[in-house]
Design goal:
The chain is α/β, with parallel strands linked by helices and 239 residues long. The protein contains eight helices and nine strands. The protein has a single domain, classed as Vaccinia Virus protein VP39 (Rossmann fold), CATH 3.40.50.150. The strands form two sheets. The protein has a seven-stranded mixed beta sheet. A two-stranded antiparallel sheet has the order 1-2. The chain binds S-adenosyl-L-homocysteine.
């Protein structure tokens, strides 16, 4: 193939990909199937969460070369050694937070921005922090393109949370520390809920943490495998 022909093929396939991304309807069927077979079948009952999982275009948050796997039952690489979580885990963590339209949420580990988009459909405002600059930038662009105007992405280390907007009704931590970071607990409202994977990779558990009368109550939910939380936590002696 000549270089010119190669370039033409490349341009056409990129155009096809962006058409595929825009023609959202072509994914409705697989998205419904994902919800029924992977999410409802595993016990997620909150109809609002199921509805949002049917609505949010997950394929908009995965690299183009994984477009055909966007709705499959596993995490996917998003580059920089990081992953977009398995759809079921996104739904489970969302359900655990019991969100309302007024909730103010903090997410640590924006990654692709998909989890933030799911939260934004159910809550008032989502503040999300990502430590890898390239991922923070890409997630911000994806969320902007899809008009998620109630999501605010900050590039940085989420260990100390986002004090300017604290306290939060709910927190979701999508990178695993070995212990729950104390500053995050401090920024959780009384009665607030936090979904967090804790433990050494790959043997972690997902916990639901609730702040009740100033004290923390922890409930172990299921075994999970998240990428480790990095940065300040490693120096804080908590990791
Ligand atoms: N919620 C994401 C998946 C997250 S993967 C999604 O929906 O796609 C975990 C992310 O946490 C990675 O992008 C990683 O870079 C980020 N991360 C790890 N340690 C962090 C820290 N201390 N502060 C903020 N982000 C962190």
């Amino acid at each position: 193939m000549t270089l010119l022909a190669f370039l033409l093929v490349l341009i056409c396939s990129i155009e096809n990909v962006s058409e595929a991304r825009n023609a959202d309807d072509s994914f409705v069927g697989v998205r419904n199937q994902m919800v029924e077979r992977q999410i409802r079948a595993r016990g997620i009952k909150d109809e609002r969460v199921l509805e949002i999982m049917r609505k949010v275009p997950r394929h908009e948050f995965v690299p183009v070369y994984f477009l055909d796997q966007a709705y499959e039952d596993h995490p996917l690489s998003i580059g920089e050694g990081q992953t977009i979580s398995q759809p079921y885990i996104v739904a489970l963590m969302t359900e655990l937070l019991s969100l309302t339209k007024d909730s103010k949420i903090l997410e640590i580990g924006t990654g692709s921005g998909y989890q933030a988009a799911v939260l934004a459909e159910l809550a008032g405002t989502v503040y999300t922090i990502e430590i890898v600059p390239k991922l923070a930038h890409q997630a911000r662009e994806s969320l902007k393109r899809l008009h998620y105007n109630n999501v605010f992405v900050r590039e940085g280390d989420g260990y100390f949370g986002w004090p300017e907007h604290a306290p939060f009704d709910a927190m979701i931590i999508t990178a695993a520390p070995e212990n729950i970071p104390k500053p995050l607990v401090e920024h959780l409202k009384e009665g607030g809920r936090m979904a967090i994977p804790v433990g050494q990779h790959p043997n972690q558990s997902l916990y639901l943490v609730q702040k009740i009368n100033g004290r923390i109550e922890k409930k172990e939910i299921i075994p999970v495998s998240f990428v480790p939380m990095v940065g300040l936590i490693e120096k804080a002696g908590e990791s």
